[in-house]
Amino acid sequence: MTKSGRLIVGKLKLQFTPIVRYTVRMTALPTSSGKVTFSMCTIWLSMGLGLLAQTSEVVELPPYVVAENSTIPWRYAEFPGVEFISRCPDAVTRQLITSQYRLHELLGLIIPRELRMQWDNTRKYVYFNESNQPAVNQEMVESIEKQERLDAKTKQSKHRADADLEVGFMPNFRFWDEDSIAVFFVIDPTDQDQDGITLANSYVRYLLESRTPALSRWFIEGMMELYGSMRFTEPPIKGQIDSVEVIENFAVVVAKFRNAVTVEPVFWISDQKTKALKKNTKSELKLLSLAEIFAVQLIETKPADYQQQWRAQSSLFIRWALDPEKGTGGGGLPNNRTQALWKFLERSSVEAVTETLFQECFGLSYAATETALRDYMPSALRTAYSLRTEQPIVTPTISLRNATPLEVSLVKGELNRLEIGYVRARYPAITDTYIEQARRTLRRSYDLGDRDPRLLAALGLCECDALNDVTALPFLQAATAAKVVRPRAYYEQARIELKLLITSRGEIKPTVKDLGNILKLLGTARKQSPAQVDVYELYAKLGLRSEMLLSKAMDDVLNEGLRLFPRNFRLINAVAILKTMHGRIDEVRILITRGFAVTANPSERAKLEHLLSAITPDPEGEQ
Q: Can you tell me the mean pLDDT for 163-174?
């Protein structure tokens, strides 16, 4: 999530966070492995208009505090599914919470809650006050500089070998793992534009890509293309407001705007192509067939021009389906096509996409819809539209109070824990520093006697993230025994217990009886949200490393995993290997074909080729 403001630099859409230093952050881009990468740079704005030359390269770290010695209490508030702690003034905190609530309600106009990732664990927000943020610890700076010098010699560093590194703390970021998410902001309470906060592209992509069962690739990419043309913020006040009448009139305008998402006119691939289409849409508009749009999986392997066309047309189809002006809803309310879109996405996440399925949802053939898109394009190139909530958005009452030690440990401790993975991947030299910070925050409440199952689970997961399974296990066992709602806690305990069991048995494979508690833990993890692909991979590992048969019940579990995560190569490969061991060759061939369809990674494709050769009879051997 980020403060509003966008710059177009070349062909890259960048988002920035105007706090003190203006940090420009590129939209998150998915790699072929499904991971998300981020690029960032720092610029300085002169009177909000010009860019000054960058004189150093920036290392931005997650929040870090050597010791909690502030006399300012943490303030706490909660909604169903969300927790907040803040060291900002209450008025600012309420404004920030209201903005977050409103943005997520508006998000439902373009992506219903059912089509987004769901958590049983609460989302957590931490608002830091910029005025009492500490400086970066000098020891950390020296560790990073030493690491960067070593990395520069092996060409692994992201920075120039001769660059001066400017080490500072991030102004905001989102961290997540398999079953939790935490977002932090460093806020200047004197900034009058707290309502300028928006939902960052990377956050929306995360909600879509992490949803289970998995959404169609065309929808994720098309929605992200369309999302860049949407506005969620109020129009600026122009002129002096000096009468009650003007204030009241403006309040009406703001009320309407605050309850709406505005979709700008279509931008078709480039300025040149957009202008050409406006002049002569009929001759210039070339569309791929809908059958082709829906069938593409590995868009990254296609030529650049094809990728642009595919994304633009996926976006156009979604825009057409959401547009209320041509539908029966009217007045900005959802139309029949919108409901058809949601139905189509729900069904296509668990069924094969066919024209029959499309017709059952939209009442139109592919050909008729393609004609409708061509007819729609002239107005879409010139006209914006708004989607509005049926009723005004009313934020629930925000009851702020001082946070208890347990609440600080649970909310801020979760943020600190999630920072560990980020730092380890980028600046491993200071990983231990962040591990200790997370332990301090989580143990503060524990050392006071708190034994809340959520805290025990967080302590266990922190030790897992610190690669310390021995210390993690007792915390996890206590948490799961208390029936904590935390799916990753059950998975991690099952993983550790299986590792210990295999080690203790040596060459002897564990029996089904030996696996009793592990299977129970995995069963509980499957019942909680979000679903975890690691759980289903562990089931496959159980089949490979134990005497457990590939029964119908086991088959059902593995098929459930493949349904929830249809594009996950690791799971597809693990199940294929297990079924190879049990001689289910026809099913293995189907899985191998599926694997080739979802990965372009050379090493992953080599594994599939090896597996295919293993199940393919040798012609000479048959003679």
A: 80
